[in-house]
Specification:
Layout: H1 33-71, H2 75-91, H3 94-143, H4 146-163, H5 172-195
Length: 196
């Protein structure tokens, strides 16, 4: 695969963490002793800065913890604050707003549907109530029917035979009560005659 042209398929090596950068330089790119020394000094300086920054960060974190302790802020309160901030961030996103709007519309439609179902049920109950009232109103009509009149006449005849000749009429309840009384009286009379 080597085409013979120098540098055409050349790959640069990437130094891994902890590997000295000067040792990864290709032999074709040799550095002078002076350049290598300069890079070593810069490497030492950067490593020292990293260590200093780590120490400063640790000191800042310790100071932060001390301030929070003095203010009475504990990790639970911090967690709550972080969650609240996170929730604010979520609610500020366009995706949340669109979803919220869609759910709101769906809720309105569901509410309208439930209201419609409620109206239908109310209407059906009103119809049942109206039929019940119509049935109650039809009771006098039933009282004027030929079957009812025939039954009423038979009860009146029985009443006049048993209870004597009282004025005809009265309400149906009175007629039934008097018929029951007459029937009880008739059975007592029969019992009395049998014992004699």
């Amino acid at each position: 695969m080597d085409s013979g042209e120098p540098g055409l398929l050349k790959t640069d090596q990437v130094p891994e963490e902890g590997v000295d950068a000067a040792t990864t330089i290709s032999t074709t790119e040799t550095l002078s002793e002076e350049e290598q020394e300069e890079l070593r000094k810069e490497l030492a300086k950067v490593e020292e800065e990293i260590q200093t920054l780590s120490q400063v960060l640790a000191a800042k974190e310790k100071h932060l913890a001390e301030i929070k302790r003095k203010l009475g802020i504990n990790s639970l309160q911090e967690l709550r604050q972080n969650i609240a901030r996170g929730w604010q961030d979520v609610t500020a996103t366009s995706a949340y707003k669109k979803t919220s709007e869609t759910l709101s519309q769906a809720g309105q439609k569901a509410s309208a549907a439930f209201s419609s179902v409620g109206s239908v049920i109310t209407k059906k109950l009103e119809d049942v109530n109206i039929r019940s009232i119509q049935h109650s109103i039809s009771m006098p009509a039933m009282r004027n029917s030929p079957t009812f009149k025939s039954f009423e006449e038979k009860v009146e005849n029985l009443k006049s035979k048993v209870g004597g000749n009282k004025a005809a009429g009265g309400d149906f309840g009175e007629v039934l009560n008097s018929t029951a009384n007459a029937s009880a009286t008739e059975s007592l009379t029969e019992q009395t005659q049998e014992t004699q």
